[in-house]
Backbone:
């Protein structure tokens, strides 16, 4: 998968997040007054860093979604092939596969024994 640039609205959201983070950082440091007056290049760095991080995260998320979609399609194909091979799975199981097999001796005893009355 090739690199895809994020949508302009997403870039704007990432830039707003970066500027808010920088403003909070300066307010925690105790800078009074207009925070934009104090080293505005810090805002540029913060915005660029947040755009880069969120773009990378969105690319990873898109790749994972595509991988999950491919796996889901493969699973559906496998289930379809299995249904075609084994027929309808809603049929009840055959009687010879039900219950516990106890062996020939116990089958013989069950056949010729009498119940106590």
Residues:
């Amino acid at each position: 998968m090739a690199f895809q640039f994020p949508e302009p609205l997403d870039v704007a959201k990432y830039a707003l997040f970066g500027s808010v983070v920088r403003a909070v950082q300066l307010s925690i440091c105790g800078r009074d007054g207009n925070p934009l007056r104090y080293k505005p290049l810090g805002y540029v760095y913060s915005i660029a860093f947040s755009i880069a991080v969120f773009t990378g995260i969105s690319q990873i998320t898109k790749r994972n979604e595509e991988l999950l979609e491919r796996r889901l399609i493969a699973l559906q194909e496998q289930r379809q092939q299995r249904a075609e091979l084994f027929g309808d799975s809603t049929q009840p199981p055959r009687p010879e596969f039900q219950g516990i097999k106890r062996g020939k001796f116990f089958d013989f005893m069950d056949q010729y024994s009498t119940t106590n009355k």
Remarks:
- The chain has a mean pLDDT of 82.
- Residues 8-88 form one domain.
- The chain has three helices and no strands.
- The CA atoms of residues 83 and 89 lie 7 Å apart.
